Amino acid sequence: MKILVLNAGSSSIKYQLIVIPGNQVLAQGLVERIGEAQGAVHYQSADHQIDEEGVIPNHKAGLEKVANLLLDPEKGVLKSAGEIQAVGHRVVHGGSYFVQTTIIDDRVKKVIKDLFPLAPLHNPANLAGIEVAEKVFPNARQVAVFDTAFHQTIPEVAHRYAIPNKFYEKEHIRLYGFHGTSHQYVSKKAIAYLGNDKAKFISIHLGNGCSMTAIQDGKSIDHSLGFGPMNGLIMGTRSGDIDQSVVLYLQQSLGYSAEEVANLLQKKSGMLGLTGSNDLRDIESASAKGDPMAQLALAMNAYRIKKYIGSYAAIMNGLDALIFTAGIGENSDVIRQLVCTDMEFLGIALDQEKNKIRSKSIRTIQHPSSKVQILVIPTNEELEIAEQVYMKVKGN
Ligand code: ADP
Q1: Are 165 and 193 within 8 A, CB to CB?
Q2: Mutate to test the pocket of ligand 1, among 331, 336, 377 (most ligand atoms within 8 A of CB)
Q3: Residues 50 and 41: beta-carbon distance below 8 Å
Q4: Can you give 210-233 as a three-state secondary structure string?
Q5: pLDDT, tens only, 66-76
Q6: What pTM was estimated for this model as a whole?
Q7: Domains delineated in the chain
């Protein structure tokens, strides 16, 4: 089955055309700067690479460009649009309504729309991607894969906030969680690798956005992002955990508007706010040259991750494996080492040499004395979406 996976953002569309079973990527790329003065389309297949600049007024124009490239008689990989049997859409917020991958119909689109206030940056773009794909690929099944779905197993004791009940019942304010597709993908890989579907895992996704998930019996039981994607770990530009009093102080004493506070905590904080860069490679090289602020930022980042490891080991009453994934988790031996140092009390001991090996494969990097396995697992959200879409469409 040829499945087109779409990840539509506010001004971009990432896409991959994948054949399942077999996991063959026929083509992939990105449409960027949609609606701006100058946009770009990138396309890569086994034999061709295309990078085109030009105005892309809206998502429809962007997706039509993708379709034209896929169907190009010389450089394309399809003879007709009808060859695409399903389009898998990454949808960021599924609220409490969607616990699994769902075939899209008018009711599903209405719920995605009703959830706009909870994900104002993402769900409108995701819905635009769906509506455009319906027009461009009218014969394909349209399927939604929700970032929040994997976390719907988080129990009430963990997903509720201690505020008056009406805010939960009427306003649906609770922990939803994000990066679910990535956490689900790496936890399935870890279960297969370790041959243990009852294991207690902590999955640590460290990219531009960062989050951790406690996973027991293959299910998410707690997670560091919350109602929105701001809580928990220190991220590229987001502060993660912060005392609510700081938000009140910014507004009540320093005169910040709600919008200014949101901008500060989401776009100007985190590693960027501490060091001036949100790219961990820059921060690591500054730290290696002795920059004290870069060193402090790395130490703070790892310290926060350690606190979550401790709390998740406590709530699961044990720990079998840590999983590091995404750009930083897969590539930064520096962060992995800072996190796994002085953790023998929890049975975590890193092998320094194994930690330094660079690889694109799943691997373990713990010392033989470690009770806890430490895995590095490359994530692949597009493949997870394609596999879920395949199972859903096949089953219908
Ligand atoms: P996104 O959340 O946008 O998908 P990624 O998973 O690609 O992000 O992660 C981006 C982060 O990974 C950046 O902070 C980048 O600096 C970091 N990163 C990528 N490669 C390396 C590397 N070799 N060493 C350290 N950090 C890296």
Answers
A1: no
A2: 331
A3: yes
A4: EEEEEEECCEEEEECCCCCCCCCC
A5: 999 999 999 99
A6: 0.93
A7: 2-146 (3.30.420.40), 180-376 (3.30.420.40)
